[in-house]
Amino acid sequence: VPDQRWVTVRGRIIGTGREPLICLPLVGGDRAALLSELAAVMAKKPDLIEWRVDHFLGIGDSEAVLAAGAEIRHLAGDIPLLFTVRSAGEGGRPTPLAGDGVVNLYARVCAGGNVDLVDFELAHDPVQIRMVRKASLAGGVKMILSFHDFTGTPGAEVLRAKCAAAESAGADMVKIAVMPHDPGDVLALLSVTWEESRRLAMPLITMAMGPLGTLTRLAGWLFGSSVTFAVGAHNSAPGQVPVEDLRVVLDVMRRYTGITRLCVPPAERNLPGGTFHGD
Amino acid sequence: VPDQRWVTVRGRIIGTGREPLICLPLVGGDRAALLSELAAVMAKKPDLIEWRVDHFLGIGDSEAVLAAGAEIRHLAGDIPLLFTVRSAGEGGRPTPLAGDGVVNLYARVCAGGNVDLVDFELAHDPVQIRMVRKASLAGGVKMILSFHDFTGTPGAEVLRAKCAAAESAGADMVKIAVMPHDPGDVLALLSVTWEESRRLAMPLITMAMGPLGTLTRLAGWLFGSSVTFAVGAHNSAPGQVPVEDLRVVLDVMRRYTGITRLCVPPAERNLPGGTFHGD
């Protein structure tokens, strides 16, 4: 049994095995839009904030990115900040960054002290992943390695291989997002989540996207997904539910699944069965 | 593809492939308790009412059962009434009925014209199942054949065999309830539900009981379960959620899974994929 399945960021535990942390994205295109979006998101009291920097029109100017990041950091108070440049191939907005431009931006941001986590895609070149790992470790930043399939739901062996690749690359967390075509795909994603969450020595974040996958955003945590992405001001991927509705559902589940605390001592984390029983 | 997966009872379609009908149980021990419970349940506007007659202390007196049934029928208005004597071995209250006592009671009730559906257990003797089938057909009553395991979650092949046995015995619907011991059991029950709901030529009702199984009562319909049992006045099995909370969750799911109508024309029923997509 792995002995380190959780990650602590600014005092928040990711990977408790209980209710998910709620992450709200920022997709503003410029400073003004971001700050107004951030104010709306902060009012919703997220557990994490993801800055989807691929939506930032100034992404080609690393000084502008660093300056915006510093402003977001200041206004986000003690909410952990996740920095993500999603590639166009995995659902992001096309950016002008070419070659090592993305890696250089991650490196500067990791050194800047304003972000707590970065999401980098497993599909990047292994050399680039190593560079981001090195920069994030040097900057005290946690690294999520991620995989997104907007076309379908790969088989369990493919998804398990993605988790294994994230492990080998030294990730602090792994994130997997798929597009289901029928309810069986949703169950397949949840089954991999349940199996891998017990095997991995790090937190796992999974979701099935689109309307069919809504259930995974509401209840994936029951099967081992540690973070759910919801809508604070604007959504960043199909199927995200407004945070108010997510909380209503979590509240019902909390009451009837016998789960009453958000964060539990890490010592209790390795008892997945005991997490859920209440009668 | 089966051509008759739904059942119509008093104008309500069971097996639309969309949101579940909500069934609220009555577990009163005597006439006064039942009528007071029924008033509370009617205020919650259920789609179905199940009279759990094993809880009725007068069960040994078939005239008393018929008289109570007539009163319930009258007060239930147009809500379909499901008559169930749950055996002690499958979660019911022990009753004094012995030998063919249960079958004779079902036969009289089916002939009485006051109930719309009966639930009879697959574990009964095949001869008894045939007798109840004959009586229910003669009385125009739909027959659910049911299987409950309060100790665990049998393998998929066992659950598939229960569905096949219900089919062979000429059931109008089949119901399967299991007790999960971990989230993997919940996924196993939902997977069988998804597979069998596409295969069977009749509606399927499934649930995983207890706190761990709560999700199946809230979301089993996404995978093909046609009815969910909730608490109106009193619960009748572990893990049932108050109907108010169930409706809150269904409302969120309705909005974000793109499903907007409760009942759909039967012609649309055989398109499980099309049922769920919204973007």
Based on CA inertia axes, which overall geometry of chain A fits? globular
Poorly predicted runs of chain A are 260-279
Annotation field: number of helices of chain A: 10
What structural class do helix, strand and pairing data of chain A support? alpha/beta
Strand order within the widest beta sheet of chain A:
9-8-7-6-5-4-3-10
Q: Give the biggest beta sheet of chain A.
A: 8 strands, parallel
Number of distinct beta strands of chain A: 10
- Could you tell me the radius of gyration of chain A in angstroms? 18 Å
Strand content of chain A: 15-25%
What can you tell me about this protein's structure?
- The structure is a homodimer of 279-residue chains.
- In chain A, 40% of the residues lie in helices and 17% in strands.
- With 279 residues, chain A is of the alpha/beta class.
- In chain A, strands 9-8-7-6-5-4-3-10 form an eight-stranded parallel beta sheet. In chain A, strands 1-2 form a two-stranded antiparallel ribbon.
- In chain A, helix 2 (62-75) packs parallel to helix 3, helix 3 packs parallel to helix 4 and helix 5 (156-168) runs parallel beside helix 6 (183-199).
- The two termini of chain A are 26 Å apart.
- Chains A and B meet through helix 6, helix 7, helix 8 and helix 10 of A and helix 6, helix 7, helix 8 and helix 9 of B.
